[in-house]
């Protein structure tokens, strides 16, 4: 397969080059804002300024750029037949709508986290939330990342929260509690709580806690290397070959049955 990499000069983009080649696929090229950012990349990898240009050269694009690029990327890929593996989080309502519309024309795999371990944590969190009554088991999600991270809670933490909400049959926005400070009053029944820590160069740590008056169950995931995200994204890109158009998740890539 010919795999393009949007944002090829970023930290994950550079890892993606190695993982694509390790998988026996071809790096068809990548997008970059300025040539100066491409220092250190293999000289034989074509560089492009736009998604449209990149799409002309590949079968699938792996995209770990920014939410602000989603609308333009969606418009660029519609009608090309090029699959889109998107790892961008924090999408607005418009960006989500454009992503969904694009999936009516091309194969799209969207995930907040391409780690197989995180995907399984989300699945288990949904199963546990379905089995443990919300009025007896308080759900809290704790995450920690490196000091440079600009968003909180992380996209992965929110995705886990969405899984808990699905298991409970509620809308996350209606029960989410984040950043408690001061006299907040007692914990609201059925709330899904979030806490975000930042420090050092931690790649990503996530804990999901279900706590009752009598016991506590914790699901934990620790990422030691960003390479796990690149490896998972390449796995997803290879999986798109021959797939029908539509919107898929890492659960589909891993072959997990629907709940």
Query: What structural category arises from helix and sheet content?
Result: alpha/beta
SSE pattern, N- to C-terminal? EHEEHEHEHEHEHHEEEEHEH
Q: Radius of gyration over alpha carbons?
A: 19 Å
CATH architecture of the largest domain: 3-Layer(aba) Sandwich
End-to-end Cα distance, whole Å, is: 31 Å
Which homologous superfamily in CATH is the superfamily of the largest domain? NAD(P)-binding Rossmann-like Domain
Biggest sheet strand order reads: 3-2-1-4-5-6-12
Strand content: 15-25%
CATH topology (fold) name of the largest domain: Rossmann fold
Overall 3D geometry?
A: globular
Unreliable parts: none
Main location: cytoplasm
InterPro entries: DapB_C, DapB_N, DapB_N_CS, DHDPR_bac, NAD(P)-bd_dom_sf
Organism: Acetobacter lambici
Pathway: Amino-acid biosynthesis; L-lysine biosynthesis via DAP pathway; (S)-tetrahydrodipicolinate from L-aspartate: step 4/4
